[in-house]
Design a protein that fits this description.
By secondary structure, the protein is of the alpha/beta class. It contains 6 helices and 5 strands, in the order αβαβαβαααββ. Helix 2 links the parallel strand 1 and strand 2. It has 2 domains: about 150 residues, 3-Layer(aba) Sandwich (Beta-carbonic Anhydrase, Chain A), CATH 3.40.1050; about 40 residues, no CATH class. The protein has a 5-stranded mixed sheet. Bound molecules: zinc ion. Zinc ion (ZN) binds next to loops.
Length: about 220
């Protein structure tokens, strides 16, 4: 049995390494060698959904956590995954999206029209002001927004996108999950909408008319 002195010495040493772990590159990974991609929605508690300590209390240390609108694959998600997997010791990707997502709540074409009505020229906006090289073709802005028709389908497509990406090694474990906002529980994505035990997994169930710009088709 450890003495308290030994326990404290170990805890202090571990904490010291935790603070500077990033300088060790792949030898200083987070606690679970894990990168999580999740929707930014305030109703999706990532730690509770996945049973990890990534974002609460701050610095729980289990994962590198990336959140965006929808928890979808984007250029910045790829950039972040590329860095943590190739250089910071991460070996696993977990994607978590959710029912009742704001990204199901409108048609992307309507959002484009709303922005245009405000006088914004969506065909000529800088996606990244520090990287003017990053540009969309004319007419692609609606796709870029990334609104979803179906959260389960989008979750599956997002996983496939990481699996097939040249910056993500083939031996990385990748999985995708859907958080049921109304029941506070996690389930696997299910392509067959009528068999799902939940409400609001699709844009149609949120009374959105018309198909989205074809990003997930
Ligand atoms: Zn969401």
């Amino acid at each position: 049995m450890m003495t308290l002195k030994e326990q404290l010495e170990q805890a202090v040493a571990e904490r010291s390494r935790w603070e500077i772990r990033r300088q060790f590159g792949a030898d200083g990974p987070n606690m679970r060698n894990l990168w999580v991609l999740a929707c930014m929605d305030e109703r999706m508690p990532v730690d509770e959904a996945l049973g990890i300590r990534a974002d609460s209390p701050v610095g729980g240390g289990d994962a590198h956590l990336f959140r965006n609108a929808g928890g979808i694959v984007t250029d910045d998600a790829i950039r972040s995954a590329m860095l943590t997997i190739n250089f910071f010791g991460t070996r696993e990707i977990v994607v978590v999206q959710h029912t009742g997502c704001g990204m199901l709540s409108a048609n992307g074409n309507d959002l484009v029209a709303a922005l245009r009505s405000k006088g914004i020229d969506v065909d000529n906006v800088p996606l990244d002001p520090t990287l003017p090289e990053l540009r969309l073709e004319k007419g692609a802005f609606g796709k870029w927004i990334g609104m979803m028709d179906d959260v389960d389908q989008t979750c599956i497509k997002t996983v496939e996108a990481f699996r097939n990406h040249p910056l993500i090694p083939k031996d990385i474990v990748i999985s995708g999950w859907v958080w049921e906002t109304e029941f506070r529980r996690l389930r696997a994505p299910n392509k067959n909408a009528p068999t799902r035990p939940v409400t609001q997994p699709t844009a149609a169930s949120m009374k959105v008319k018309g198909a989205q710009p074809p990003r997930w088709a």
